[in-house]
Description:
Layout: E1 15-19, H1 24-35, E2 39-44, H2 47-56, E3 63-67, H3 68-72, E4 76-79, H4 83-92, E5 101-104, E6 109-112, E7 115-118, H5 126-133, E8 138-141, H6 148-152, E9 161-167, H7 170-181, E10 186-190, H8 197-214
Parallel strand pairs: 1-2, 1-4, 2-3, 4-5, 5-8, 9-10
Antiparallel strand pairs: 6-7, 8-9
Helix pairs in contact: 4-5
Amino acid sequence: MTFDESALPDVSDLTIGILGGTGPQGRGLAYRFARGGLTVRIGSRDAARGEQSAAELPGVDNVTGGGNEYAADADVVVVAVPWEAHEPTLLSLKDRLAGKIVVDCVNPLGFDGRGPFALPVAEGSAAQQAEALLPESRVCAAFHHVSAVLLVDPEVARIDLDVLVLGDDREAAAVVQAIAGRVDGMRGIWAGRLRNAAQVEALTANLIAINKRYKVHAGVRVTDV
């Protein structure tokens, strides 16, 4: 089956919340979603930092900021917190996130003198941990391989890559695919069930190694789709 973006749902009226939206990846995603015409809420442990981060994004007026609770009240919520904050953040917002599509883009990575490496996760992956912590939410995994440097740079017109979207709820995954497609140059490609998220998260370590070796901001393109 050939990829058909027109078959994906209309997400133009959805509000996107980003937990950890003051970090590089969260701010970058907020900026690109906003440039794609979506309404975005940036969340932070410190509400004032969330407000400041939203105000500093250049050339967009459809982004607001506040605490993580504020972001969690959006229609679709992206988890972009550091790995060490993943479990406590989701536990604290469990009730607010019930019934919502939750998109986990956290990469559990460690770093030593030999470079980045994937950390073991008891549940199998960060996304599976989110699924276990949020049994009433519709958890998907996506946006793991997007360069924060490119996302936040207003001089970069297009982000030419594919976003691998994983999830057991195909309707929720289709919404996430459509959100990815709002960013110029991006496609959201369904890449399997949530149990396959571990290798997608771990691939980030390989991309970091590529970036370091070749001085680039590498992404992923899926061929023949």
